[in-house]
Write a structure and sequence with these properties.
By secondary structure, this protein is of the alpha+beta class. It has 16 helices and 28 strands. A hairpin with a 5-residue loop joins β5 and β6. α9 crosses α14, α12 crosses α13 and α12 crosses α14.
């Protein structure tokens, strides 16, 4: 982190901040410090006193994104070498083909799998599987709603322990409701009285790596840039760390070129990473957009160009809807392959500003009356009125369509009668588009094996279940259980082979798997179900569960403790509602810790109306009635009314609290 965040620089930025923002940062730090003072039982792991400038160190708001993409193992390998031996280490590096770590493109030696396209991934520590993460957003124009008002779906797919639902107001004009990111003082995904915004992780390639040719001289390191040899910037940083006997410190010399900090070495060259580093502007944009009253004001705030890792769905009370592509996309020379590190000594590889709003694949008020994003590419965001891929440079989006995108178009196309209720229905539509090709391929494989094959008879009932399946999940569905377990078997079977062949694992299952392999996978899935649950005829809701035992972030999941059945599945199979679940030590059932975390639907009429749900509940105390009072609503998509206006809130107050009172 100290490669990118220098406390001295952050303190200087704090002093440069406008007065209103300094007031917010002061209040933020004071509130955190007062909490620690008033709760001596809380022992901070790292920071025991917060300073106002610290708000600038995590200012853009996404759960993932930018500096997290730097490979920590390679970073450690580079900076573990003594400074005097660093060039010798670099020149002694292997001559393997450079590959991009910091970008979003698939990388050599790194497993990337997705529903038709690369996307953000969440590691599954139990079995090495990877879980798609991201979000859904849908905006409906007045022409497609039965009330003549614009509608917005807000549906982040994140950890249950990272987003929190809140309504924040002030006497300075703030009145925003939605999902917060822990540690920040702005509503990240939400709405105010006349406008709403929903961010979804983007597949834009806006982080680049530059190969720097290093020269060592008596007075330090230099790097080649055109005909020049420029000095490498150096800085000393001290990192504190915990030992068995207490805290210790280690000093590092870190390096930077004009492209960015050095993060690794490859093929005898140092690698600098370039990304958006505009902490002050990012915090201003993240906060001020929550007060934007309409499309015009929101677009004006986007001129700061610091929403780097997200696409955005927007709707307002004036009837506008929009899809905004990533707000920070550097302008590059398209002669170069930006999916790989480029030659930093060539001035032609330098970034040349950022793309303007007009140069980005945005969608504003499309005639079809809807726009959406499911972490897929922008080229289907508004059906036939989407931007055209050929009109934009390849780095504008390096992903593609995904199964949720295919599904979203099915539920949006041709409908002109949306309401809050039917938008909820769309958000929880149970179709699993990822099985559209796989199940028919399995059925063909079964038909092709001879009657004499022992599996023909053993799997006849399973095949009949899947043959009659409508590809929809439910807690009662046995075919859903069979299909999910089948898919997991096939992914484990073909993941490495598909990666080696450069083929998407889902395409590999359908196009490359033999009939025998498909049948063997179904047999293995059936056996696994029988071993874990006593019979392969196990309804999906018996397997897929929501459980909250205590207030810990790491839950002690237990099959003998109460839990709630969840019908929706992992998003990898095209479920719009996502539930990222897996087994834990000692469990047979799978328990979710991510996916649908906060869900809201909003209508922007004369008065804003909204319904929402948060995974489980909003209180971490197991003795509180609000600890798990939203669990059933969450599992069934039964969103509750949002109390937004003062009279609504007054009618439902349980407790009032004045800090310090």
């Amino acid at each position: 982190m100290k490669l990118f965040i220098d406390p001295e620089e952050m303190m200087a930025l704090y002093e440069e901040s406008p007065a209103w923002l300094k007031d917010l940062m002061d209040a933020w730090a004071a509130g955190l410090n007062y909490y620690l003072y008033a709760h001596p039982e809380v022992t901070p792991k790292v920071i025991s006193r917060f300073e106002p400038w610290m708000a600038l160190t995590f200012s853009e708001g996404s759960i993932g994104g930018d500096i997290e993409r730097v490979d920590l193992e390679m970073l450690e390998a580079f900076y573990s070498v003594p400074a005097g031996d660093r060039l010798a280490y670099a020149l002694g590096g292997d001559d393997s083909t450079p590959f991009k770590i910091a970008g979003v493109a698939p990388t050599k030696g790194r497993r990337v799998e997705s529903s038709l396209a690369p996307t953000a991934m969440m590691a599954d520590a139990a079995g090495g599987m990877r879980e798609p993460s991201g979000s859904n957003g849908i905006a409906i124009a007045p022409s497609n709603s039965s009330t003549g008002s614009a509608l917005l779906l807000i549906n982040p797919h994140t950890s249950f322990f990272f987003r929190h639902e809140a309504h924040v107001t002030s006497n300075e004009g703030l009145n925003a409701y939605g999902a917060l990111t822990w540690g920040q003082f702005f509503v990240y995904q939400g709405f105010n009285e006349t406008a709403g915004w929903m961010h979804t992780s983007s597949d834009v390639d806006n982080i680049d790596e530059f190969l720097e040719a290093i020269v060592e001289k008596e007075d330090g390191f230099y790097y080649r840039y055109g005909e020049e040899e420029r000095p490498v910037d150096t800085r000393q940083v001290t990192v504190s760390y915990r030992t068995d006997s207490g805290m210790a410190q280690k000093d590092f010399t870190i390096y930077r070129t004009h492209h960015g900090p050095i993060v690794r070495e490859v093929g005898g060259k140092w690698v600098a990473v370039a990304l958006m580093e505009e902490s002050l502007s990012a915090l201003i944009q993240s906060y001020t957009r929550t007060k934007a009253k309409n499309l015009q004001e929101y677009v004006q705030i986007m001129d700061l160009h610091t929403n780097s890792s997200n696409n955005t769905l927007f709707a307002d009370a004036e009837g506008n809807i929009a899809y905004f592509h990533s707000n920070f996309v550097p302008v590059r020379d398209t002669r170069f392959d930006w999916s790989r590190p480029v030659d930093g000594s060539d001035a032609a590889t330098d970034w040349r500003g950022v793309h303007s709003f007009e140069e980005s694949p945005n969608v504003v008020n499309p005639s079809n009356g809807w726009t959406f994003c499911t972490n897929n590419w922008p080229y289907s965001a508004a059906g036939p009125n989407s931007p055209r891929q050929e009109d934009y440079p390849p780095y504008m989006d390096v992903g593609g369509e995904n199964f949720r995108g295919v599904h979203a178009i099915k539920v949006l196309d041709g409908r002109t009668d949306f309401t809050l209720d039917s938008l909820i229905g769309a958000a929880y539509d149970s179709y699993l588009s990822g099985f559209e090709d796989l199940i028919p391929a399995l059925l063909r494989a079964y038909d092709s094996i001879p009657a004499s094959d022992s599996l023909k008879g053993q799997l006849a009932e399973q095949i009949n279940e899947l043959k009659g399946w409508d590809l929809r999940w439910s807690v009662e569905s046995v075919p859903t259980s069979l299909a999910i377990f089948l898919g997991d078997e096939l992914r484990a079977m073909f993941r490495d082979e598909a990666e080696a062949a450069g083929i998407n694992v889902y395409d590999f299952m359908v196009g490359k798997a033999t009939s025998g392999q498909l049948i063997e996978a179904l047999s293995a899935a059936s056996t696994k179900l029988e071993q874990d649950f006593g019979a392969w005829k196990t309804p999906w809701g018996e397997i897929n569960r929501f459980q909250r035992i205590n207030g810990d972030i790491v839950q002690p999941f237990n099959d003998t403790e109460p839990s709630v059945p969840v019908g929706f599945t992992t998003s990898r199979w095209g479920s719009l509602a996502a539930f990222n679940a897996r087994r834990y030590p000692g469990t047979k059932r799978i328990y979710g810790t991510g996916g649908n975390s906060f869900v809201a639907v909003v209508e922007f009429g004369d008065r804003v109306r909204a319904r929402a749900v948060t995974a489980g509940g909003l209180n971490n105390d197991p003795d509180s009635p609000h600890f798990d009072d939203q669990a059933e609503r969450y599992a069934t998509g039964d969103l509750r009314e949002v109390y937004f206006y003062p009279e609504q809130i007054q009618a439902h107050i349980e407790r009032e609290y004045q800090p310090g009172g």
